[in-house]
Amino acid sequence: MAQPKLSLKEKYQLMTRGLDWETTYQPMDKVFPYDKYEGIKIKNWDKWEDPFRLTMEAYWKYQAEKERKLYAILDSFSQNNGQLNLSDARYMTAIKLWLQGITPLEYYAHRGFAHVGRQFRGAGARVACQMQALDELRHAQTQMHAFSHYNKHFGGFHQANHLRDRAWYLSIPKSFFEDAMGAGPFEFVTSISFAFEYVLTNLLFMPFVSGAAYNGDIATTTFGFSAQSDESRHMTLGIEVVKFVLEQHEDNVPIMQRYIDKWFWRGYRLLALVGTMMDYMLPRKVMSWAEAWGIYWEENGFALFNDLSRYGIRMPKYHEVATKEKMHITHQAWSVFYTACPATGFHTWLPQPYEMDWLSDKYGETFDRFYRPRFELFGQMEKAGNRFFTNRLPLVCQTCQVPDFFTEVDNPMKQSVRHYQWKGMKFNFCSDGCKDIFVNEPEKFCQAYIPPQQIYQGNAGGARTLPEYAAWLRCPMGSEAGDYYSSDDYQNWLKWHGGKDTTPSTAAA
Ligand code: FE
Ligand code: ZN
């Protein structure tokens, strides 16, 4: 007799249901040692709504099709010397930062989801995490492949792993993910699937992929589109996890609220790097960080938390601080990158006149009063042959690991620093948000590997000064680090364009 054809949903249920048997030779708590210690109570895993409803067979077919298209475009990009059609070689700084800072996070996500995929007793959750683990491995690989073409033509691309483990600015994304991976399985999915992917990912992905398109980077644009359908599955997982856990037991609400508070703030601090890319590294601009924050957080985020309020969840703590800071953080971050670029794996520059106007237009009086004068002073110093580089190591926040350059919310002339005494040690923070996170988990965060402290202790190859540290990073001025307009990248760019400087004169694509 012919078998009736099963619907995808039925197939999916057959694939996932009945796999979650009760073990008999060993107690369940020994088989699943991690999914209870956080205090999250799950009464019925069968209430889990499978967010993807995708069989492995369909998954492989679908992903393989996407790979074929992606690699066909990457091939033609490289055969046609697509790098020559970029808006301007300054754009490469954004891609270098992405490869050095974000691509490793994709790999961490792969490992993290593979780990928690083993730890949940619910089979639906296990399968969802397993698929996401595969997606994330693919994202790490496709990013490396999309960017690998640039390694033939620009500095900063050939030692991403070496930099990931050494560079001070990369400890920001690295510590973010290591914190998540060092947490329990429910905190991990709340941090990555919900806070990062559901709430904040639009602030990472949309500007980045549109930014690539605006600046002629077909390779990154294509990778971005190829990852986007995965991203929408991940976002579905993020919201499903949170609703499922909140519905299971009222005792879960305060635990989830603490995770949401913590990971909103950590994600927001990490995105300061992305905001800086949008405002300063893209020669052609998509939108400002302040505008993106307005759309993706103040509109979409508010609506989401409105929806979650029926579960007893309130807005993330300190979200008002983040919104007030939107006018400042990218200018502050770029100032630090501008002055500290000899100890990085990328180049920096002062905004061109058309960019200064664009920043004035987007940030109004805030920019003109607090940041334009600073850049103008730097500009005068450059003209006098005295380009300013910092020669000190900064104080770094113990939680987010961003150097302490943020200012008080209501006073942009005053540096924001918080301190906390714990077991006879003094710890420093960039904000109340970061201090709170430490106070909740001091045993974890007192162990943070803080680059400037490690340098002073001699743990950076014995480097004691910034030039020695740059040598340990293997980032010589000119080819890898330092000012853009005296870099090899810029010299090569001129050569390839018959001596013509292609710096745009307008922000529009
Ligand atoms: Fe990913
Ligand atoms: Zn911080």
Under CATH, the topology is which?
Ribonucleotide Reductase, subunit A
At the fourth level of CATH, the homologous superfamily is Ribonucleotide Reductase, subunit A
Going across the major beta sheet, what is the strand order?
Answer: 1-6
The run of helices and strands is HHHHHHHHHHHHHEHEEEEHHHHEH
**Assigned CATH architecture:** Orthogonal Bundle
Average pLDDT across residues?
93
How many whole angstroms does the radius of gyration measure?
24 Å
Helix segment count? 19
Provide the list of bound ligands, each named once: fe (iii) ion, zinc ion
Count of strand segments = 6
Helix percent reads 55-70%
What is the highest CATH level, the class?
Mainly Alpha
Q: What brief labels describe this structure?
A:
single chain; about 500 residues; mainly alpha; Ribonucleotide Reductase, subunit A; two-stranded parallel sheet; about 60% helix; binds fe (iii) ion; binds zinc ion
Short account of what is shown:
The protein has 19 helices and 6 strands. It has about 500 residues and is mostly helical.
Architecture overview:
The protein has one domain (47-78, 88-155, 163-349, 391-496): Ribonucleotide Reductase, subunit A (Orthogonal Bundle), CATH 1.10.620. The mean pLDDT is 93. The protein has a two-stranded parallel sheet with strand order 1-6. The chain has a two-stranded antiparallel ribbon with strand order 2-3. The N and C termini lie far apart (62 Å). The protein is mainly alpha-helical and 509 residues long. The chain has helices spanning 8-16, 28-31, 56-79, 92-119, 123-148, 160-164, 171-181, 185-214, 218-248, 252-281, 289-308, 319-325, 329-340, 353-383, 432-440, 442-445, 451-456, 466-473, 488-496, and strands spanning 347-348, 407-408, 411-415, 418-422, 425-429, 482-483. The structure holds fe (iii) ion and zinc ion. The site of fe (iii) ion has 4 residues, from α4 and α5.
